[in-house]
């Protein structure tokens, strides 16, 4: 009873009028009409007591007219007051408005913790509609707190402390979904689009739909105002349970999709995962209403985030790629239609480059944005290659990748060619289809840059995963030659290991073995010879392994029984090449780990996609403890986030990053700097600038060292180093 009295008192003098977004959908009953209706009900009780009892049993809410709060002027709609003013004189109107303003002034105009607690207790104990409306009004005030239009005359209570704000936000976000579902007589969790369409014609929806719209609209507004990642994550996590209601409001649905896509592409910490789960749950429940928009938005956000790649951004791009591939699983037939369109766009860009043969056309293909799109669809084919909806996309994608490899066959694009060969290997393994990758890799070994002595010295370590084009000085370094040769050997071994159990392995590996022997004779680097001889030895051993089994079979090569050839050995991994490729993978992993310190990488935690996805899915519905920790700060809308560092700290961090940034960042592949490598375009470089020695003056302008004396020293040093290498070889 105490909670009821508090609610009633608040309705009499501490609430603003119903209007705007919150009251839209239901018009309040004027005071005069309400009294007449109440008198009619009292007369009905005296004249027809049996019918009155029947109404009490069937529809008690119809007789419980007082719960709607019509006896108070505070619950009267502002529009009704304006309509009543049409029958009054100007003086009466002025007197009436002045008196209404005096009545509207609350004692202090502040929302206290006692008020909020009384509403929350009344909702939990009685489940009445009046405290729900009160709570949604103050929730709207909390969401719009600090806005430019905060001085709205229709809002009586506009002042609150941070504790009150936290209490309102936490209770509303945690409990309002269950309250609205009870009012609409929906299941406590889940539901599909058909369910919300069924109840749109019901009495409950017509009565309470404005409450749903108020809750979703104000939550969207506060999402746009928040800057703290934890607050946004908690709010999205709670709104995910109310995603079913968005099917009834297409405008709000589009806005929520847009906001979630923004958080997915630009968020930090757990926010991208939470935003992705929100979008996925939205599409599962509402289907085609938002699936097309989400697929296009995810692809566009992915493209925008992968225009440039470096060691610190690599894992975040992998995370975004895994998200897009996982999202395609929601509806594979629809995803196929979008994938076909996007792959066709890539093919048109490549065809334009082949026809135009200009630097600008080549630049559109040989850039990170294009290559990362190929990586995305390669991952999709590898994931869903066995599905009949996606398998037809493997052939056009293979043709595009093969065309990219041969577009500009120069040594400066070694990293790009290796990346494309790796994609072709993955497609072949996923679809169990033979792709002639060995010729692409063996052509790389015959380029003259790998047979020339490394006049550029040892050079810096080259991470082929983070570059597409190598600088001209780096081509002449020993580290680049080693990285290229070892990467070619690894990819060639991967390709041959895929078919190490094929009945035609001897014929398939004959030409690669011949060309590898030719490379061994032509190269003068003992390390390369050693690696090639080991690979040739493994190829010969694998040929003997398959030929022994071939002598015992009697079926023809086109016989379906070929699929069972060495089936048991394949399951156990008994072929020599399978064992050899395992050791090469370990060596490649060690080399990659040495090039990139995983503990320092930004976004390393967010790259673990499946772990984060599982953790987010396992979160229970009652996230009260999490919410209390998130909303325990002094943050209010319209103010700066608690985690926003001061400007001075940002400057210090930027200085530290610039100092700790490796020198490899200077040689990063930039799309705008793409220039075809040819001897005619190369500028003449004397010995003094061959090693790229640049010093900075006191003013900060780069100037080269003295030309003549350092040139002699440099040339003499290079001659001595070349003599030592010849002696060692």
TrEMBL record:
Q: Where is the composition biased (Basic residues)?
A: 701-711
Q: Where in the cell is it found?
A: Nucleus
Q: Does Nucleus show up as a keyword for this record?
A: yes
Which regions are flagged for Basic and acidic residues bias? 30-46, 94-106, 639-651
Nucleus as a keyword? yes
Q: Where is this region: Disordered?
A: 1-46, 65-108, 576-595, 613-729
Query: Record's InterPro entries?
Result: Noc2 (IPR005343)
Q: What is this protein called?
A: Nucleolar complex protein 2 homolog
Q: Which organism is it from?
A: Opuntia streptacantha (Prickly pear cactus)
